[in-house]
Design goal:
alpha/beta, three-stranded parallel β-sheet
Length: 79
C-alpha cells in the first residue's frame, strides 16, 4: 500500500513497523523500526515520561524519513 501511495500520488510514506522483514517483503520504501508488537510507537511500561520520549523519538525519525530522498528501500533505525 505505501509503495502505491508513493508511486501514484507522489506522496512520501514512512512506515513505523515492528517486524522489519515483513515490511521489506511487502515493499515499503521508508521503514522506521517500532518498539514492540503490542506497542509499536511507545513503551507504556516505562512510565509516562519515558513513553513520551520514545514516541517523540519515533515520530521525529519518521518525519526525517519523509524528508529524505531515497532510491531503494531504506531502514531508518538511528537518528
Amino acid at each position: 500500500m505505501t509503495r502505491e501511495i508513493e508511486r501514484v500520488a507522489q506522496i512520501p510514506v514512512a512506515q513505523i513497523a515492528t517486524i522489519v522483514p515483513i515490511m521489506l517483503t511487502v515493499g515499503a520504501n521508508r521503514i522506521v523500526p517500532g518498539v514492540a508488537i503490542p506497542h509499536p510507537v511507545g513503551n507504556p511500561e516505562a512510565g509516562p515520561e519515558e513513553d513520551k520520549k520514545t514516541r517523540r523519538k519515533l515520530v521525529l525519525r519518521a518525519l526525517k524519513a519523509l524528508q529524505t530522498e531515497i532510491s531503494e528501500q531504506t531502514i531508518f533505525d538511528s537518528d
